[in-house]
Queue: 4 jobs
Job 1
Amino acid sequence: MDVMKAMEIFSQAILFLGLIFDIIILLFVVLSVLLIYSLLMLSVESKSFEFGVMRMVGLSKKAIIILVILQSFLFVVPSIICGFLVSFSFLHWAKYYADHSLQMDFDANPSIYSILQALFLSTLIPLISSIMPIRVVLDRNLNDALDI
């Protein structure tokens, strides 16, 4: 029975750590969305005249949406590459430390689930952050067209 009580305590501690990590991930996602949103809004504000000219020349709303989304993905792609490189190198360093100092063996390669989760979040973040800049571009071009 003592073993069962100890396992219950460890189980609750693991659940608590999982909750803490989920909250940290959520915090990083929100922070990333806000940072990319602010960068996109600055870009949209500075290029509003160019977007208006493109719309007058015949660029469709769909093409402007694609331009803004592509720009948001261009902010994210370098961070995805750097993040994977840093995480793989950190995992291999941690495996080396665990092998030599702690005599502990674990797999240094991340699971497919964690890679897919990282890729899902890294594609979701620019899509969420580009919603408001797209609305601003389309509304501003519509308002500018009505003023003429």
Job 2
Amino acid sequence: MADFAAHLDRDRLVGRLSELVQTASENPPGNELAVARLVEGYCRSLGLDVAMHEAEADRPSVVARWSGEAGPTLGYCSHYDVVPAGDVRLWAVDPFGASISDGRMHGRGSSDAKGPIAAALEAVEILRRAGADLHGTLELELVADEETMGFKGAGYLVEQGIVAPDIAIVGEPTSLRVVRAQRGACWIRITTNGVAAHGSAPERGISAVRHMAELVLRLEETLPDITHPVLGGPTVSVGTIRGGEKVNVIPASCTIEVDRRTIPGESEESVLATIDEAVEVARKRFPDMDAEVEVLFKSNPFEVGEDSPVVRTVAQSMSEVTGRETELVGFRGASDARFLFEAGAEVILCGPGDITLAHTARETIDLHELEQAALGYAVSFARLLGPREDS
């Protein structure tokens, strides 16, 4: 590790991150072309085999490979699209200025997730300068579209068979903790159908809103009483509601959209069973309830065991770099890790940055932690692609 540390260049690392932050790549609308070209240039300067792949015009993802001797493929996946900066008046600094104060870089994308990308690029630079030999392939999967669910970025690369790593690290702001499990998401639209009538005579109609009000209360009631050691339990929340046409008309229709987060062991079928149970409980009060249920989107939860080589290796490497034991945690949100897991990879998330600052007007990254991430990644890459015990 000491040899690797000698090759870490803070100015180069921070300089790349500054250029990345200054190259706006807000999604929506998804203007990632300029930042993709910047990343492509960095990867070519590192001597990697680089290709760009587009699911949609001018929204490319970069795949850059360093192939050594025969061995597994280690994917490092992170995204260079960012959420919109929003009202600039809420920012104390220019959100794309990459200003530095008190040892932190400020700006949209500084931690989510251009900081992890800069750290991974520096890790490759360290390995190159240290003359590391890889027993396998290191594959940088630097992608567009993660902030709008990733189907045109990592999802496209997996779907097309462009990437299929054996093991993977996903760069997200985890404060250098190792995420070994992630919740899934199931977005569901529920519509109750009623009968319209004049508002002065509600008994002549059937209020779809009244039925929906009862159903909403039952969704939490029928949530399964289960838990996961690092993810906690499943959750359900109603994100939107629309119903009725006019204040003096009994509403004939009401629609909600439900965000249902899942944990390992749950499936789309089991989730829909709990929704059906909620409908049946609501029918005890309103036997004439007419409800339709439609799945809009789903992503599966996943977990990797504590004893998995990728978990142990990355946790040990980060511990050695930071001088403290690396915490193993779960990730409550969604990330591109789900695509790589479903492609067969043993995948974890780990990166510099504080997730609680992401998507806010206070987004920053600690530059010392950024350096630790670069060194920790370098050590992890070298160990995961080191000589096999039987060689």
Job 3
Amino acid sequence: GGSHGDPMAERVLDFYMEPFDDNGNPWNIPWTTNRLPAYLDIHLMMASREACEIYSEMSAQLPPNYLTNNARIFSTRVYFPNRNGYRN
């Protein structure tokens, strides 16, 4: 979800990002800095429209993990080649 548990988008069950430094270690620099990480892994778990329709009609009869078992996970890695800023 979005901030404070608000829905971010329909059928999105999980969304998170992981920043990494040049050595592939988790990036521990505060998000308030103006520096960029070396790269960012983005993960998105999304349920199909059909699975959501079935779940909304039969949620009491389905196992609690029905949506996650019928979801797809998408991930990508975004590199920041100019993460140190422009130089003279």
Job 4
Amino acid sequence: MEELLKQLMGKKIDVTCGSNAAFRGDVIDVKGGVLYLRDEDDKVAYVSVNMIAVVYEIKDQHARPGFIS
């Protein structure tokens, strides 16, 4: 899992740990069994790699001004 997370360095991901804990942020580091995620408010979450159940890579959709028909 740690190797997979290192491949996602610099990308935005969702991480699920069990049924109630979910985190979203940019992967800024992975070391010593800890995933470092930076959220949109520049807060850093430290997530135990051993507790991660699911990882989703987030594709940001850019909003375009105007109407959609």
